[in-house]
Amino acid sequence: MPASKLSDLLPIRMSTGKPNAYQVFGLKSGEPDTAKITAAIKRVYQTLKESRSSADPAVWKQAAKLAEAARKQLEDPQQRRALDAGLAAGDDTAGGGATTDNTATSEPDDPLASLLPSAKPKSKPATASPAAVLGMPPGLSAPAQTTSNSAANVSQPATPASVLGTPPLGAPATGTPATDTPAQPAQPTPASVATAGNAPIAWTPPKKQKTKRRRKKTGVFLFALFVIVMLGAIVGLLQFLTQGGQIAVRPPGDDGGGIVIGNADPEPEPPRPAAPASDGVLGDVAASGIAESLRRPNDGIPADDGRVPSDSNSQPDAMPSDQVPGDLTSPSPIPPAGMPDSPSPMPAQPAPAEATDPMTPANIAANQEKIEAVEQLIRAADWDQMKPAAEALLKLKLNAQQSKRASSLYDIADLASFYRGAIGRGLATLNTGGTFDYVEGVPVIVVEVSPEDLTIQFNKRTRSFTVDEMPPRLTEKITSFALSPERPDAIAGQALYRLIHPKWRAEYRDDTFDVLASIDGELEQVDTAILQQVAKELFPK
C-alpha cells in the first residue's frame, strides 16, 4: 500500500499537529542522548530510502524536507539549545487562555512552524477610525443627526463636509449639534439645483468679453505691393534686355498722324581729323619728327594733289572726306616715270605640289621600327606613353599596310586608355566614409580614396589598391559610376584593358576576342576585324 501521509513515512503520531525536530524522528521532546538521536536519524533516513519507489512523490518530498530540516536542527548545538529552550517555554505557557488556543487552531497547519524559534505574535493594530484615516483631529466628527433634521437631509444633497464628518468652514470646534450653527451660504452646484426642485435659481451676471483689437494688415499690404513692384521691374528689365531700346521716330512730312517705333541706331562716330603733313614750324619736316631718310618712297612726288581751293569763310564746316562729292575728290596721284599707269595684279602662282617621292626601303624600315616600338609599349602596359606614341604614328608617311596597322594600334591604345581613365573618374565620385555594393548585397566602406588609390573595408578587413592593382570586378564597379557599361566603346575598352593588363591577360584573353566580335560594326571609325587581328598578333597564346 503506497504511503499517502507523513505519518506513513515518519514516526509521527496522528494527533501531533506541529511536530518538532524530536518528534520527527520519534524521540521525546528534549532527548539528551546524542547516540539515541543519531540512531533515530539513520533509521528514519533508511525508511525514506526504502519507501521512495512506493510512496506518493509529493508526500515523500515533504517528508524528506521535514526530516532534513529536523536533522540540521538537532546536529547543530546552537539550534538544538534554542529548540530545547523553546520547548521549555512552551510547556510553561501551555495553559494559556482559550483565545490563544482558538487562534492557534484557526491558523493553518504548518509542519515546519515548530522548527522555528518561538516568538510572541505581534498585536494587531486597532481598527483605524474614519477620522484617523481621513486625517481629522478627534472631536471634529459630526454628531448624530436628530430625527427632526432627517427630512431636511433627504431633500438636500450631502455636502463633502457632512460626509466626512467635518464641520463647515468658520464653525467653532465645539460639541454643539451642527443644526444650531448657521451654515454659510454657498453657490448651488448643478447637481444640487437638479435635486432641489423648489430651491431658488441663482443668477450669475454675464462676464464682460474683452474685445481684441484687430491688427491692421498694412504690413502685409506693403509687402505684397513691394513684391508686385519688384516683379514688374524684373519683367521690364527682361523685356529691355531681349528687345533692346526703342524710340519713337516721326517720319518727315508727318504732322503727328502716326508714330513709328524703330531701333535707336547709334550715331556714326565722326572721322578723326587727318594728321597734318608738317608740324607747322618746319614746313618740309614731318610732324612726327622722322628724318628724311625714313620717309615713304612716294614722298618725293610733287605735292600737286589737284585740290580745288575753297573759301574757308563761305564753307565754315568742312565736309568729311567720305561724304565729299565725286567732282570735289582729289585725283589719284600721278605715278612716277618708268612705272605703268595702273599696276596690274600679279598672276596667281600655283602652289608647288608636294614632293611625291616614292617610299624608299630605308623609310619603310624606319617606320616599321617605330611601329614595333609602339607595339612594345602596348605589350608593356605603358599607359602614359602608348597613346601619344600611337598618335605620332598616324602623322608619319606610311604605306598602305603600315597605315592600317598604325590605325589599329592607335584604336587599341585609345580604347584601353579610355577605360583606364574611367577608373579615375569613378574614384572621383566616391567619398571617404561612403559605401557601395561590391556585388549585389555585399556593401563595402570607403576608408580612403584618391585619384590613384582606394582603401575599402569589408568584413572588418581593410584592403588598399592602386588603379593597376584593382581586381577586374572592382574596376568594373568603379567605372560604372562614371561610364555606362552598355556603351560599345566601354565594352571594347574594358576587354582591351584586361587584355593589356599583365595580371589579367592570360585569364581574359579569349573573352576579349569574343567581346570584340560581339560589337563588330558598332564602333564608329574602327575596323573591328583588323583590330582583332592586330590584338591577336600582339598577344599570342
From TrEMBL:
Biased segments, Low complexity type: 99-132, 166-196
Keyword rRNA-binding appears in the UniProt entry: no
Keywords tagged on the record: Membrane, Transmembrane, Transmembrane helix
Comp. bias (Pro residues): 332-350
Residue ranges of the TM segments: 220-241
Compositional bias per record (Basic and acidic residues), positions renumbered to this chain: 293-308
Keyword hit for Transmembrane: yes
Polar residues bias locations: 143-159
Tree of life domain: Bacteria
Protein name (Swiss-Prot/TrEMBL): Uncharacterized protein
Annotated segments matching region Disordered: 88-215, 256-359
